[in-house]
Amino acid sequence: MHSIANRSEWQHPIASCASGPVVEWFALVSAHPGQRRPDLTPGFDVLRIDEALEVRTRSLEAWQLQPGGYPGTAGASAYTFIPEYLLIAERDAATMLVVDLRTGNRCGLIRQFDKVDNDDVTPTWKDTSTLLDELIDALATAPPSWAGNPPPRTDD
């Protein structure tokens, strides 16, 4: 189990611009004990820090990144899964919401990453606050939508 307080394993050294919001995000998620977590992101499973690190490790191994093979500026498409992506949610092990921890004025950006489009032309949010604000707005619309799409239907 990974502690939010002991961030050295997951906090990229250049990510100081996003450290506060990311810590707050994982604190919010971790405030709910057990397997049930808040349904913050429609269509995605919100991850605890230990789950995020596990999926991140698997993703880095699967993508076999070549050193220097991607832009070092936050917000630029890397076209691959990179060490500076920290997951906050996933769907079906192929689509993830990640925090971009690279340097630049878009450090802390939340983006969707998937195995088909990678990080090119996928929804983005300025930061976790913007993501949550959009989710609140989506709940207030009729019919509700999020990231330009209607929420997934359930037969519950």
Quick overview of this protein structure:
The protein is of the alpha+beta class. The chain has 3 helices and 5 strands, in the order H-E-H-E-E-E-E-H.
Structural summary, described in words:
The chain is of the alpha+beta class and 156 residues long. The protein contains three helices and five strands. Strands 1-2-3-4-5 form a five-stranded antiparallel sheet. The protein is globular. The protein starts with 18 loop residues before the first helix and ends in a 16-residue tail after the last helix. 28% of the residues are buried.
Assign the structural class, choosing from mainly alpha, mainly beta, alpha/beta, alpha+beta, or little secondary structure.
alpha+beta
In round numbers, the mean pLDDT is 75
Annotation, overall tally of beta strands: 5
Biggest sheet, open or closed, and with what strands and sense? Answer: 5 strands, antiparallel
Report strand order across the widest sheet.
Answer: 1-2-3-4-5
- Rounded to an integer, what's the Rg over CA atoms? 15 Å
Helix content: 25-40%
- Kindly report how far apart the N and C termini lie: 32 Å
String of helices and strands: HEHEEEEH
Number of helices: 3
| Share of β-strand residues | 5-15%
Shape: globular
Low-confidence stretches: 1-6, 150-156
